[in-house]
Design brief:
mainly alpha, 504 residues, Fumarase C, Chain B, domain 1, Fumarase C, Chain A, domain 2, 6% strand, 3-stranded antiparallel sheet, 55% helix, 9 strands, elongated
Amino acid sequence: MTDALILGVTPPGVDDIVAVARHGRPVRLDAAVAGRVGAARRLVDDIVAAGRPVYGVNTGFGSLAVIRIPDAELMRLQRNLVASHAAGVGPPLPGEVVRGMMVLLAASLARGHSGVRPHVVELLVGMLDAGITPEVPSKGSVGASGDLAPLAHLALAMCGEGRVETPDGPRDAASALAAASLSPLEPVAKEGLALVNGTHMMGALGALAVHDARLLQDAAEAAAAMSLDALLGSLTPMDARIHALRGRRQQARVAERMRGMLRGSGMLASHAECERVQDAYTLRCIPQVLGATAEALDYVTGALEPELGAVTDNPLCFPDDDEVLSGGNFHGQPLSLPLDTLAITVAEVAAFSERRTYRMLDGRGDQWSLPPFLTSSPGTRSGLMVLQYTAAALVAENQVLAHPAGTGSLPTSAGQEDFNSMGATAGLKARTAIDNALAVVAIELICAAQAIDLRRPLVSGPGVEELHARLRRITPMVDEDRPMADDIAAVVAAIRDGALTGVA
């Protein structure tokens, strides 16, 4: 069995979230979690017993915080909160996103500052390990005061209501919990609020998106090297001396990768004495553009990682100080900005890739041009013509998705929550933009591999030849016209699975 992710010792990382959410890695709680969580719970119980007014424990929520709730109504308050906030709409979130939400919620509660009982954290872990995934609508979060509506749907399933996915298919939450010998939650004071407050949808979207965006970046760099040689571009712009003068680490790294993949290329040698002095930007400026997108991914990753181990509900319990403090850790602004940046970044990766695809298919240049649409019989055959149409459509969609969500704040809760991050929308946009960009880069890889075949008997550099060999195990050369949708999907899957990574 795969080693379990232990919550409560060190914060989970991006790869941990992906392993649990996407690949079913088991989750366990550190032995110290019960003590920490129990101490915060006792603080909440003491506050209730003493009659001290604390937001969300014995008051209403949002603009209703001024209303004091009698002790006899505290459990109803929490159950009503979960029920009333389960107001999401739209298609359900993918199961991997919901599982990511669950592990982030469990990690946050396990820190011992949320005031829930240990049973709450244990139930989340039990559901994860049993493969019980709540059905959560994708839309309804404004990215502040937590991902309220999506998390409420998650919490509702914990209470035995709503629908869930299981290894045996969809079923109602109550029967799924019973089949896994899990007791549904009956939330007591503070617990409903702790479950629906938090940035866990944004965090899960971000972790999965950053993971996929790094695979995209790797594939985009490899595709650029293959296209550079297929288009008989020059390696001179990759000279280390040029990039040393700009002092950008990622730019220099991309240039170094281009040199490594094309080292000793016969295609480079074949046009060493040609009269061309400069290539188009999509060849000449590969290190500058893809170095910049790599820098942006570094920023997004650095902004996301602290959130994976954060406590983001409200109010927060500090048992050592005998205090419960109201704050705003649930606000998604620290995620909204980087997730908007991520959508912009991958839109640029895709746009840069599509331009090289266009050049390879153009076939109307000089004597070094490739056959039109990369077919040996243009006219009778259309070759790879329409792959570029698809890439262009996806690039156009990504231009729309690159518009930031976070600049469109709208107030909620009668103005009490008067500035919202829209980080959940930013995360959903980024996820779609990455899916589009992966297909665009897959199209470039298919076209570049075809172009390499059409340059035979010339041989490229070792990295390009290795990449070409891997691609040919997935998608054969296009001789006679054939439907290409399955080829594109297969190359996308190979990028996602890491089958095309590590080519240097």
